[in-house]
């Protein structure tokens, strides 16, 4: 595809829905900083892309301010105090937590606490002056007057209709006469508009400790969720130091556990050790090495990654040269390692903003599966996530369910600061696919010198599962040459050919800022997204 990157100097935003990118740009044009712009984009995307995220989900932020230490915000909610194996057994559930329904709504929705933390960080450290009212204005308007339904929303609603239509509050919120709303029809969310308006007036803290929290807790309990007001009260977003990989071209940063940011960094560290750039871009060698590095990273994930309070090893240990050298030696450059089951699918949005002062924000927000648990609270219109269905009910499992434990997250927002002075925010949605798409984008930009748009538009691969898929094959978009597919099969990969521009491989985005302040951005033609800049 011959799509050209977007250019700018004073600010740039990328999102999987164009209206979210425009919300961020509007804030930047008014003199807001990248943190403020991202709060506005996060609110808008929660309204206009409801199948992928909502204010009933979680979020994570990685932040770079030139000349300062890296920053991060963990806005992940923990399991309810009542959420135990015994509680589920009392509901007649002892094998696995269901994906849908009130019993799947078992973790606090943390994303609004992240918005609040980012807003406060902006005011305290950057002199930010934008009110929360201003930052939520677009989202409130879109929820009240409506937005056109995207093809993605229509398609996903139709595909998941059998398992969602009978969930409490789903039909009256997301369906039109019992069916998926038509592409281009107007989608209204008046209750959500009122809720966002309330938050704009009262602050994000009201979602956890105020009247709004009391109301939601009452309705969650009435529906059959284990969440209570006390669970909302105890939640706080956490400021964290992101994980850092020392790469041959600079430093790459990603989110701490319980996200799989560690996996994304391991993959890049292994590719660096195999001198990826000596191979032709998008060749069988390129794809093979990325896939085999992914397998090594996922072995670490499946053996060690959980709520950091329960981890027995410091995740930074796996990014030390000795550990990466040992993993790199396990990669056979000519033969695929056998591959087992991956993680379940996930639905998410990633967005990036860089402002004129070089402040970079990489952000990700999710409700886990399409429409999360499927339940919608009757008064507030909040669609609650089902992130906690990733917990295991086996007492010996790595991610076994215990009260107040944080769930495993596929989410991981990425940010790189190169020795050349360039900075880059990049990321994607999509379960197992997130670290792999990050590897594709990073390698194409860092190792092969491609611009962000070319890096995103080129054909992609995915080992394992992502949203809408449950097979564990190596999925290749059909635009890969037949000889590449054949060589990968010869090396032992179980290749499955998917569409030319297939949503299976996720909705990605990338912005690169050069040392002279010029920015280049790329958006994913597989999404409804855009780059907005000035």
Any overview of this molecule?
The two termini are 24 Å apart. It contains 18 helices and 19 strands. The chain has a seven-stranded antiparallel beta sheet with strand order 1-18-17-13-12-9-8. The chain has a seven-stranded antiparallel beta sheet with strand order 7-4-3-11-10-2-19, covered by helices on one side. Strands 14-15-16 form a three-stranded mixed beta sheet. It is of the alpha+beta class and 534 residues long. Helix 1 packs antiparallel against helix 2, helix 2 (34-48) packs antiparallel against helix 4 (111-126) and helix 13 (261-273) crosses helix 15. It has helices at 18-29, 34-48, 85-90, 111-126, 132-145, 151-159, 161-164, 170-174, 190-202, 206-209, 211-223, 229-233, 261-273, 284-304, 321-328, 433-447, 452-457, 482-490, and strands spanning 6-8, 11-15, 58-64, 71-75, 147-148, 186-187, 238-240, 243-247, 250-254, 347-355, 360-368, 414-418, 423-428, 461-463, 474-477, 495-498, 508-513, 519-523, 530-533. It is globular, with a radius of gyration of 21 Å. It folds into two domains: 23-48 and 68-239 and 353-390, no CATH class; 242-346 and 410-529, Serum Albumin, Chain A, Domain 1 (Orthogonal Bundle), CATH 1.10.246.
Characteristics of this structure?
single chain; 534 residues; alpha+beta; Serum Albumin, Chain A, Domain 1; 2 domains; seven-stranded antiparallel β-sheet; 18 helices
């Amino acid at each position: 595809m011959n799509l050209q990157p977007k250019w700018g100097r004073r600010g740039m935003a990328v999102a999987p829905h164009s209206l979210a990118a425009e919300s961020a740009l509007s804030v930047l044009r008014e003199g807001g900083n990248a943190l403020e712009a991202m709060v506005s984009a996060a609110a808008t995307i929660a309204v206009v892309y409801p199948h992928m995220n909502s204010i009933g989900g979680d979020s994570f932020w990685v932040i770079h301010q030139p000349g300062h230490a890296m920053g991060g915000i963990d806005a992940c909610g923990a399991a309810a105090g009542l959420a135990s194996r015994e509680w589920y057994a009392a509901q007649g559930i002892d094998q696995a937590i269901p994906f849908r329904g009130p019993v799947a709504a078992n973790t606090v929705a943390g994303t609004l606490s992240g918005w609040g933390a980012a807003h406060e960080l902006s005011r305290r450290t950057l002199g930010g002056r934008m009110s929360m009212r201003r930052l939520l204005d677009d989202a409130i308007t879109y929820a009240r007057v409506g937005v056109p339904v995207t093809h993605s929303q229509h398609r996903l609603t139709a595909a998941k209709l059998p398992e969602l239509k009978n969930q409490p509050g789903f039909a009256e919120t997301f369906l039109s006469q019992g069916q998926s709303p038509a592409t281009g029809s107007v989608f209204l969310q008046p209750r959500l508009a009122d809720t966002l308006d309330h938050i704009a007036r009262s602050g994000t803290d009201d979602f956890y400790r105020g009247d709004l929290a009391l109301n939601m807790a009452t309705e969650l309990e009435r529906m059959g969720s284990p969440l209570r007001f006390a669970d909302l009260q105890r939640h706080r977003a956490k400021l964290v130091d992101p994980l850092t990989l020392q790469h041959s071209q600079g430093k790459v940063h990603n989110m701490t556990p319980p996200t799989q940011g560690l996996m994304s960094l391991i993959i890049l560290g292994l590719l660096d050790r195999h001198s990826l750039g000596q191979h032709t871009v998008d060749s069988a060698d390129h794809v093979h090495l990325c896939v085999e590095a992914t397998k090594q990273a996922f072995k670490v994930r499946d053996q060690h990654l959980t709520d950091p309070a329960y981890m027995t090893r410091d995740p930074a240990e796996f990014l030390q040269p000795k550990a990466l050298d040992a993993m790199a030696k396990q990669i056979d450059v000519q033969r695929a390692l056998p591959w087992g089951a991956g993680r379940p699918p996930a639905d998410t949005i990633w967005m990036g903003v860089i402002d004129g002062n070089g402040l970079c924000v990489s952000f990700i927000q999710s409700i886990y599966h399409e429409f999360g648990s499927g339940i919608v609270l009757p008064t507030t219109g909040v669609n609650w996530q089902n992130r906690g269905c990733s917990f295991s009910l086996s007492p010996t499992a790595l991610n076994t369910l215990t009260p107040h434990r944080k769930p495993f997250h596929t989410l991981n927002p990425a940010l790189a600061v190169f020795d050349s002075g360039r900075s880059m925010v990049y990321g994607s949605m999509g379960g197992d696919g997130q670290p792999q798409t990050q590897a594709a984008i990073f390698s194409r930009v860092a190792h092969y010198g491609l611009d962000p748009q070319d890096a995103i538009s080129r054909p992609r691969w995915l080992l394992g599962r992502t949203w809408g898929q449950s097979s564990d094959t190596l999925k290749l978009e059909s635009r890969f040459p037949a000889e590449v597919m054949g060589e990968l099969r010869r090396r032992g990969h179980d290749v499955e050919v998917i569409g030319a521009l297939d949503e299976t491989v996720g909705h990605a985005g990338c912005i690169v800022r050069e040392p002279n302040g010029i920015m280049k951005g790329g958006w994913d033609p597989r999404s409804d997204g855009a780059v907005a800049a000035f």
